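re: ur question from earlier - yeah i can do the single chain one, its not a big deal. heres the input i used so u can compare w yours
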Amino acid sequence: MEDRVYTKGLIEALLFLSSDPVKLSSLSKSTGLEKPELREILDELILDYQEKEGGFLLREIAGGYQFITNQKYSDVLSQIFKDKKRETLSRGTLDTLAIIAYKQPVTLTELDEIRGVSSRAMVASLISKKLVKAVGQKEVPGRPTLYGTTNEFLLHFGLSKLADLPTPVEVKELRFEEFSPDSIVVSDETEMNPEFDTNLLPEELKEESL
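and the output i got, formated as C-alpha cells:
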C-alpha cells in the first residue's frame, strides 16, 4: 500500500513539474511501471481530483496527461491573470476551424464549397496561430494541399484526441468559443500572428495573407 501511495505521489510530482502533457511512455520510463498499471493509477488520480472538486483537475490531453485549473474558477482567475494567452479569431475563422477539425484532411476548394466563400485568409490565420497545418496533398490533378489540425489545437481546446470533439448536428453549428470560452476571443477581423513568417505558408495561401 505504501508503495502505491509513493508511486501516485511521484506521478503527481512528475506531472506538476511539466508545462506540457506527459505521454504515458515517458511516465513509464520515469517510474519503471508497465503501461497498464500506470494507466490504472492515472485513472485513479483523475477520479481523485474530480471528486475533490478543488482548484486542479488531471486530464488526458493531446496524447498525454496534464494538470489543468478547474473550469469553475475560470471567471475569477481570468480577471486576476489577464495576460493569459487567448487567441483572437473571427467568426469566419472559427467556422473554418470547425470544418477542418471535423472534415480533415480537407482542401481549400472543399472548404470554400462548404462555407460558400473564400477561406484563404482564414486558413492562413489558423496556420500562423499553429492551430492548423498542411498535412499532405490530395492525389487528384493539381495535387492541392490538404489541411488538418495540430497538436496545439488539441492543447488549446483541452482534448486528448480528435475523437473527443463534441458531435454537432451540423459541422457549421459548432461554436468553438463556447466550447473553450477562456481561450477564444471573437473579433470582427481575421488576424495573422504578427510573429509568423508568411514565407512558410503553402503557395496557394501566400497572396491572401499579404
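DSSP finds ten helices and seven strands in the chain. not sure if urs matches, ping me
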